[in-house]
Amino acid sequence: MDNQVRIAVLVSGGGTNLQALIDAEQAGTIQSGSIQLVVSNNPSAFALERAAKAGIDTVVVSRKKCGSQEAFEQAIMDALSQYQIDIIVLAGFMSILSERFTSTYPKRIINVHPSLIPSFCGKGFYGLRVHEAALAYGVKVTGATVHFVNEIPDGGEIILQKAVAIRENDTPETLQKRVMRLAEWKILPAAVEKVAAQMKGQKGE
Ligand code: GAR
């Protein structure tokens, strides 16, 4: 079991994507890796309660308390190395990471974004704002994307995408919920298993 891929999940809020990962691990959909650590930049994130309930270690790293972006990222990196983390999953992590951070973990950081990249992504597009922008533009199809993270916000290689039809009476809130349920909660665990399985092969059977 020592070639099992060690996963950390970085969160900021409700943590429904974290829950989808926890459920997938318990159901065996994720079988090549296991979640060892949850890191939150927000001490009151409900995601922390979800992690605790599942018996997963948690660390809170506050950008404000750290004083600088560099110290903030260093504190996260220290926790990741303490737990010997192989894969980092950004699941509603609402802080952009610098190139120093992203280049430390090439093809090892995975993000879920609530649109079909390259639409409605990049700086300023996060959470409900993404769905507001999609509705304002009038697109008829949106969805979610899981991709590797590099130095370009939402610009790394795409791993999986899933489309979701927009309904005439959608609000940003109804659309957000449907994109989560029909796309994010499915493709995030699937992408994590895909990447973990590949990495597990590299770690040697
Ligand atoms: C999710 O919809 C996720 O795709 C989005 O924030 C939400 C977090 O929800 N992430 C981004 O917008 C990143 N650019 P959750 O905390 O319930 O998983």
Mean pLDDT: 97
Q: In sequence order, what are the helices and strands, one letter per element? A: EHEHEHHEHEHEEH
Structural class category? alpha/beta
What do we call the CATH topology? Rossmann fold
CATH top level assignment: Alpha Beta
What is the total domain count?
1
Proper CATH architecture: 3-Layer(aba) Sandwich
**C-alpha end-to-end distance:** 9 Å
- Secondary structure tally, helices: 7
In the CATH hierarchy, what is the superfamily?
Formyl transferase, N-terminal domain
Description:
It is a single chain. The protein is α/β, with parallel strands linked by helices and 205 residues long. It has one domain: 3-Layer(aba) Sandwich (Rossmann fold). It is built from seven helices and seven strands. It has helices at 16-27, 46-53, 63-66, 69-82, 99-102, 128-137, 172-203; strands spanning 5-11, 33-40, 57-60, 87-90, 109-113, 141-148, 158-165. A seven-stranded mixed β-sheet has the order 3-2-1-4-5-6-7, sandwiched between helices. α1 packs across α7 (172-203) and α6 (128-137) packs across α7. It is globular. The mean pLDDT is 97. Bound molecules: glycinamide ribonucleotide. Glycinamide ribonucleotide is lined by residues 13-17, 47, 91-92, 112-114, 126-127, 130, 180, 184. The site of glycinamide ribonucleotide has 16 residues, from α1, β5 and α7.
